[in-house]
Structures are given as C-alpha cells and as structure tokens.
Amino acid sequence: MSVYQAAEDLSMFGTDPWWLVVVKAVFCFAFLMLTVLFSIVWERKVVAWMQLRIGPNRHGPWGMLQSLADGVKLMLKEDVIVRRADKVVYVLAPIIAAIPAFMAIAVIPFGPAGNEVSIFGQRTTMQLTDLPIAMLYILAIGSLGVYGFVLGGWSSGSTYPLLGGIRSCAQIISYEIAMGAAFASVFIYSGSMSTSAIVGAQQERWYVLLLPVSFLIYMVTMVGESSRAPFDMPESEGDLVGGFNTEYSSIKFAMFMLAEYIHMVTVSMIAVTLFLGGWRAPWPVSTFWEGANHGWWPMLWFTVKLQLLVFFFIWLRGTLPRVRYDQLMKLGWKVLIPVAVVWLMLVATVRTLRNENYEFTDIALYVGGGVLGVLLLSFLVDFFRDRAKEEMTAPAEPPAFDPMAGGFPVPPLPGQELPPVPRRRPHRERELIVSGGPDTASDGSLDGKEASDG
C-alpha cells in the first residue's frame, strides 16, 4: 500500500445504541445552526468593518444576538402566498432546499476514527457515520438542494423567480463537473472515498500542499455551488429583483436563507476534510504537543479551520462585485472544467508512475516533457489557425453612416464617421430673419439703416 493511502476501517461505525445516535444527530444539527447564527453576525460585522460602516450593535452585547432578532422578525411577519402560485410546490420548495443542506454533515469527521470519546459513559467516535462512498453521498445530496430553488422559482408563477431558478440549475451543473474532477484527484491519492480515510491519509502532508490546483479549483467551485457573491446570480437583485425567492416571505423565506448559509458551511467542511487535514492540528502545534489530536481537541482545530473558510466567503462578498452571467458560464465551462480534467490526468499519471516505483527525477522529467509538448502543440495550432483566419478575412469597409437614421439624430458607432459638414456661407451672404417681419437681406438692410441714421 502506498504511503499516501489509508486503509478503510469502518468497523467502529454502526455499533452505537440508538439513543447515542440520536444525541449525535442532534449535536450535528445544533452545530450547524449555531455556526449559521454566528456566521450571519460575523458577516455583517466584517463587511461593515471593510466598508467603514457601523454594523449591528443593538441586539445583545456588541450586536451578537442580531441573528436571533432576524429569525424572530421573519417568523412574525405576514406569510403571503401569491395568487398564481402552485401552493403545494410553493410550500414544499423551501423544505426541499433546506433538508439536503443538513444531511451532508452526517459523514464529516470531527475527530479521528480510532479516538473514542465518552458521552454519558458510552465510548463513541466523533463522527455520526461513515461510508466507503461517503464523498459520492455528499455529491448526491448537494445536487438535490437545487430542486428546491428551481421548484420555488417555478411555483411562484412569476417571471423573475423562474429565471432565478433556471440560473441556479445551470450554475450547479456548470460547477459540479469541475468540483467532481477536483474530488477525483483526492480519491486517487488517498485511495478511498471515505471521509475518515481521506483525513487519515493526510497524516504526512495535507492535500492543499500536495494537490494545490485541485484546492484552488474547489475553492472557486464551492463559491459557485453555494451561489455566494460574486457568483450570486440566482438572487441578483440588480436584474431579477430577488431571484427565486422574490415571492417568498416570513418563515419560507427564512428557510431559503437558512439553506444558503448551511450550504456555505457544508462546502467549507468538505474543504477542511479533503484539503486542510480535517480535524488535525496545524503543523507547529502537532510537532511539540503529542496530545493535540486526541480527546476533544480535534473538534477545536476543525472549528477554527471552518471559521477561516467562512471568513473567506465573507471577504469575497465584501470585496468583489457581482460578475455577469456570461462571465460566470465562461469561467465554469471554458476555464475550470478543462483545467480540472487536465490536472486530473496529470495526477493520475504521477500516481501511476509512483506505483511503478519510478524515481522522483524520472517522474518530473516525463511529466515536464509531456506538459511542454502539449504547450508547444497548442501554440502551433493557435498560430496557424490565427494566420489562416487573417488570410481568409478581408478588411471590410466601414458601413455608411446615416446620422438621421429613423428620423432622429444618432451618434456614430465605433468605426463610423460623420459625413462632412458643408461649409457655412460668409457672414455677409447670410440671411437675417427678423422675428415678426418679412425676410430681409442682412447686408442691404443694415447698410440702408446705417445710411439713413447717418
């Protein structure tokens, strides 16, 4: 077995009594809810600090209870159902969006599988459950959440919510392909799809250092997957009023908002698990403290890493403007997917050579030669293609410009020129039109008047 692979030992899961399973499930639910409440307040305070604003400072000490106040306000608001809505789907859509967001945490490890903690006198692992295909479970559950957004936009019976739901669906499809390719690189190096085994395989080196391109691809795709700024096109208030949740209010709107924030927390948990060592302590701490990865301490390291990624989401929202929809699709289909596929092929090649016991210098030589060959071939193809286009494309004459097209004066477009303006006649040849009288020759009238006055 390779040094980067970890054996799948899932025998410790599925042995807890039913009441302990319920306790752990309630803990996972409470952990998500508390993280969301904290993230909302933290987002408002951080963005206010970035933009030189005051931020929440009324509800609770330092405004820390602002999230609870928002929840109470949304629950007490009038629940409106628009007349043209499909009422059954309209009510079920927020629930369909929120439930899958909660389910992904079931396979996220908060501590090592072999390190059991005591809960009410019962020894158990710091993970609800694990599967040999846990990451496929996460991908499947994450894909189900988009149904709530699409159905919510369709069932509202309005144009803007429908467009927001369609945008959400297209965005999920575009970014999940690159995300799956980034996951596949981790599967190749860890030799497993189990989340606990993936974290165990990062004992020597975190995958953020071993697979940096996969980490960068996932960081971009997780922002697009959660529809957060600058990729918040399904809720673009500039052109869609509010997107798929425009016609929602009260507790149903709160469900959509909760699903968005929980999705943000979930994708951050996945990033911590796959690339940042999961529950493992950072490098300086783990070297001089042997007990850093035992007991309840792993949960602290996991929570700190999670909050750093949540801060990354907040930082993007307070810094970058919203992109255009065509830019969003171009980034997903023309940049992320090709880069992810090429990087996956490169990772698979390196792993194959390592399994064949090739030396590092030989692997670097083969891979470097292959990359240079592909780049040279791409350069030659682009060079001859552009040259052929230049030879086939003749310089077109600029179209004639009519400043009175349609009966109204219009400005010239790029490449068009105004027609020459006729030269004005000399001053003595102009005609002077006297208001309220007949036209008179300017030169004669003025000269005659001056002569008579003289």
Automatic annotation (TrEMBL):
Q: Which domain of life is it from?
A: Bacteria
Q: Which GO terms describe its molecular function?
A: NADH dehydrogenase (quinone) (non-electrogenic) activity
Q: Provide the alphabetized UniProt keywords.
A: Cell membrane, Membrane, NAD, Oxidoreductase, Quinone, Translocase, Transmembrane, Transmembrane helix, Ubiquinone
What this protein catalyses is: a quinone + NADH + 5 H(+)(in) = a quinol + NAD(+) + 4 H(+)(out)
What top-tier enzyme class does this entry carry? Answer: translocase
Which cellular compartments is it found in? Cell membrane; Membrane
| Coiled-coil ranges (or none) | none
Give the matching HAMAP family: NDH1_NuoH (MF_01350)
Job of this protein:
NDH-1 shuttles electrons from NADH, via FMN and iron-sulfur (Fe-S) centers, to quinones in the respiratory chain. The immediate electron acceptor for the enzyme in this species is believed to be ubiquinone. Couples the redox reaction to proton translocation (for every two electrons transferred, four hydrogen ions are translocated across the cytoplasmic membrane), and thus conserves the redox energy in a proton gradient. This subunit may bind ubiquinone.
The protein depicted here goes by the name: NADH-quinone oxidoreductase subunit H
**Species of the source:** Streptomyces broussonetiae
Task: List the top taxonomic levels of the source.
Answer: Bacteria, Bacillati, Actinomycetota, Actinomycetes, Kitasatosporales
